[in-house]
Amino acid sequence: MPAQRTFGMDHPHHEWSPVISRPTLHWPDGAAVTLCVVIPLEHMEWQAPPGSFQVARLAGGSAPREFPDYARLSHREYGHRVGIFRLLDVLEKHGIRATIAMDALTAEHYPYLVRHCLNRGCEIVGHGISVSRMITSNMSEAEEREYIGASLQALEKATGAAPTGWFGPEYGESDRTPQLLAEAGLTYVCDWANDEQPYPMTTGGNPFFALPLMYELDDVVSISHKLMPIFDYERMLGESFDVLKEDGANTGRLMAVNWHPWLVGQPFRIGSIDRALSHIMGQGGVWAATGSEIIDWYRQQAG
Amino acid sequence: MALPPDRIDYLPLVDRPVIKWPNDARVAVWISPNVEHYEYQPVNEGVRNPWPRTPYPDVQQFSYRDYGNRIGFWRMLEPLDKHGIRCCISLNLAVLEHFPEIAEAMMERDYDYMSHGIYNTRYLYTCTKDEEREFYRDCIDTLKRHTGKPLKGMLGPAISGSVDTPDLMAEAGLIYYTDWFHDDQPTPIKVNSGKLISVPYSIELNDSSVLRDNHYSAQYFADICKAQFDRLYEEGAESGRVMCIALHPFIIGQPHRVKYLDDILGYIMSHDGVWQTTADDIADYYIANYYDQAIAHAQRLAGSSIE
Quick one: pLDDT at residue B289? Predict the structure, then answer.
């Protein structure tokens, strides 16, 4: 519905809350910045089912190619076979446990990866069915409920536990998604890239929160779409952190990054991630945590 | 049930047979110039338009690519020869018929060749199975006739293919396919008959995607090639890796770019433990030594995950 010219947001999902008018946010041990590394493990389908929605510039592969696009399919698969292991090794070196956004097709068909991520102490959050089937308002409410339910069931079956977080493939939502996620028993969502702190969403039921990602620090956005050289991306990560740390001395900041293993897990890119994390983790004052740890702390602080 | 197209068994990097290259090399490095001809007036079969900018001919785009054969190829040979590189050419086979000096230059250097189709403006999308079978016969015969060499592999023409391509390649006796970007090592591809593997080519270290499509600088291309080599060289101490650099004479052979190729090759070749080779030789070696192991290991992993 078009905006009405009145105070506040033009949607019901959260309140208007500029950063200057909030209570001070304290992170554990006085950290200025909390780092959350989100890693999507998402499957690119050979042929998406009829009626499913993909963004126009779905990343991966060579130039846009016709079916069968072995290049794009296999470029994405690189993440599951090779890139994820490089990325998790780098995170482990810096004492960071990842928040893995895993889609249902990955959970069902890559049991080795599920076990590997759990053994590394990663948190696993819902990530839809596949990257080639995103949530949009084209779905009916019943279809969307079923989609969310199927995604969560696949993860529960594969991991033995129901996830508490959600990150839609390609940040996809309809205008009712936060409410449906909360009704499905979830606690937080990563689709909203509009803040540097967690914040409460107003879904009306159980407490439900946003864990906002940094849009420009998303590797697909900056490297794949905007064609930023990897060494500039590395520098951008460091410079972002420096400012967040400065601002975080007044009220805690969240630096939540989204890193695709098929992209930053390539041999020539992984060194930049390693060096950026050395910069970020090397000076103290940073709490590296998973999504649910951050939300649990935030809820406790917010009382 | 496996996910379609079910061509590649899952083998995680951290749990697979260790690969040892000849002479304990850490990285098998292959350089693949795409020696191509794009037709002046191709037929648009309705799936991909070879020259979408204008009605045919598009003289600007045609001649930009033809520059590669008239000028760029010869300039590109200088750094390749300087560093003693034996290339594996991704070849539009009609080049052998159109441009004999190029054929002679490649044969003098004992290069290997993989098919890249007949022309870069004729795709596999609309082929019937029998037409695609005839296509492989044509590629095999043309290479044999002009160079005396057997055809072993293919990068699909302009990276096009059909759902049957792996099966039909193997049926024709080819042993490797380079349109797959899922790994830094060769891997078996499941086919109806015969044996087919993937040898990692590159869309990341490719002058066409990096320099032409994505507008990065040649200095950046050199930097990422070196960074790629450094990482694979480090990892290759434990288990051999493959690194491919894909080139196009009309791109890398531009006067302002060629020194960066010299820089890249000089850096790589200054290291011990580099197997500078071709996709033909990587495929032969992998199939002789690791194909069966890889399949057995993947089956064990699949079995252990059913519990």
Answer: 98
How do residues B256-290 score in pLDDT, each as one tens digit? 999 999 999 999 999 999 999 999 999 999 999 99
User: Between chains, do A75 and B182 touch, taking CB under 8 Å as contact?
Assistant: yes
Residues of A in contact with B301 (CB under 8 A): 112
> How many Å lie between the alpha carbon of B147 and the closest alpha carbon of chain A?
29
> For residue A264, is it within any domain?
yes
- Band (B307; pLDDT cuts 50, 70, 90): very low
- For residue A296, the enclosing domain spans 37-46+73-302
A277 assigned to some structural domain: yes
B-chain CB neighbours of A86 within 8 Å are: 13
**How far is B209 from B244, CA to CA, in rounded Å?**
14
Which residue has tokens 């296999």? Answer: A74
The pLDDT value recorded for residue A57 is: 83
Per-residue tokens: B109: 């250097």
- Which of B161, B214, B216 is the closest to A68 by Cβ? B161
Whether residue A53 is contained in a domain is answered as no
The number of domains in chain A is 1
Domain ranges of chain B: 22-42+54-304
The CATH number linked to A192 is 3.20.20.370
CA B225 to chain centre: 16
Q: Do B4 and A46 touch (CB under 8 A)?
A: yes
- Angle in degrees, CA B273, B275, B279, rounded to 5: 155
The whole-model pTM stands at 0.97
pLDDT one-digit tens code per residue, A260-281: 999 999 999 999 999 999 999 9
For residues A173 and A181, what is the distance between their CA atoms, to the nearest angstrom?
10
Q: Does A39 touch chain B (CB under 8 A)?
A: no
CATH topology of domain B22-42+54-304: TIM Barrel (3.20.20)
Locate the chain B residue with the closest alpha carbon to A223.
B214
Q: Is residue A67 part of a domain?
A: no
Instruction: Calculate how close chain B gets to A208, using CA atoms only, in Å.
Output: 34
CA dihedral sign, ordered B257, B269, B207, B73: positive
